[in-house]
Amino acid sequence: MAENTISVTVDKTHIVTIGERLYGESVELIRELVNNAYDADASEVRIKISDDEIIISDNGSGMDRKDIEQYFNIGSPHKRLHRKSPKFDRDRIGEFGIGKFAVLSACPYFEVWTKKGDFQAKVVFDKDEWEKSPESWNLPFFAEPVDSEKPDGTVVTLKKLRKKFNLADVERRLIESVPLKAPHFSVFLNDKKVSPRFVPGHRIPFLEGTDFGVVHGEIIITPISRTDAKEAGVECKVKQATIRRDFFGIEKWEIGAARVTGEVNADFLPITSDRSDFIRDSEEYKAFRKVMERVMERVKKTVEELSDFKQNRRTKRVLTEVLERVKDSLFMNPEFCPEGLLPVGEEGKAGEGTPGFTGSGKPGKTERAAAKTEEQPKKKRMKRPSVKPLTPTAVVKRLAAGREGVSCLIDHFGPEGPECETQGTIITINRDHPLHQRAVKDREAYIFYLARLITQEISLMKDPRNPRQAFERQSKLLKDALA
Question: Cα(357)–Cα(334) distance, rounded to whole angstroms?
Fold first, then answer.
């Protein structure tokens, strides 16, 4: 070696340390081995888990001598250079060539048996034996006579397990992190087929483009009866394998966050070597986040609409009852009515001396006859009030009283928006207001809440310049409405 150079070396214990600490959970090693089988064009993977060993076998393409050497090449770029599998043209999941050593997180000993055509052999990795000779990197290799009865494929056997594996946890992780939906690919755990989980609910598919590639997936809004906070969040996948579950800000939503689940695929995203996260300061990830922000805005609106549809049935019933009560209260207190709500004589009851409301809000015969004999002054055309655009789930009911009536509108105007306001003869109530959110949970409280707001606005219509008298009128109207 020249005096002006130094060698780059790697200590053998470092390889062991990487394998033992590569993943936060030992169950990840099973995921890694199954994904290796997927990359090798396997159509079937069988996992056998017992107390002292784990066997993962596949019917993939198998390996010859050159492939085995490549398999044990630390950090091999083979899959990055050959991104497609030869048989099924699959996008290969593996990238870094270190996942096979993840088995060391659960055991110090594993065997790799493989067959490919007229080649059959077994390689043994024993951590204790391997560490005895720091200078030697060779592993025991056993060539075997080819058994023509056996199909091509690979079997990885983990022995001397240091940890116990819960089958339910393994199945859950496999469902999340291996491409079970891919064609020609099945996984069996202790002879039970692992199937993709079907989540019922309202489905929102999406397909968005970026400068780096396509972002596509499906967001599911589960029914309230099937909501499970543990399943909330969106599985972010690269090449059909889940990297992590993200919430994209839904945890800050006022309602419905626990109902949102689903998956998103973005194969262009760069990931960390342990496959647990993305390279977050990359331009690819920033473009991905912008897309998902737009998608989740659409999802949020849909969640609100679905929540409204159920709540609206009760809201309509309560609002109808409140308006009837307010109408009766106005009937009892005609002197409190604004001009447009002044009671007129009922059809067929003129001359009885009792003012009332017509069912249609139109004057009776006596009033119409009197109107014909008098010259009506020309009225100035009233300017139509400008109203905010309504959401599809807005609740609108009309109080048919007097000649004009009042429309009551309950809709979303934001948590910071006004609790209630009036534009012309339209009373708008903000269902996002914290007081509304609290009152709507109890029917009697909701009746009082809506009655308070409606009588408040009607009282202000009478004389908006004198709020003190308006409060007094409201108190009387509210008492008669709820008595």
Answer: 10
